[in-house]
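Encode chain A's predicted structure.
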Amino acid sequence: PRLWLCGNMIDQIDRAALERVAEVSESNGVYKIALRLGCALDELELALMFILPVESARISVVRS
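Encoded structure for chain A:
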């Protein structure tokens, strides 16, 4: 239910978009990301798109 990111990773995403769908807290340079109640996982994936594997790669693996 949680994702942990380092500062380098969090700097690569749109923080405002992330905070619309997840609660973000920081401790010692490590960021805890927790999906907000009522938000869908795909909304979180969209907010994290720039650091997640390319969607087309995931689709090609599923089709294999």
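The CA atoms of residues 57 and 63 lie 10 Å apart.
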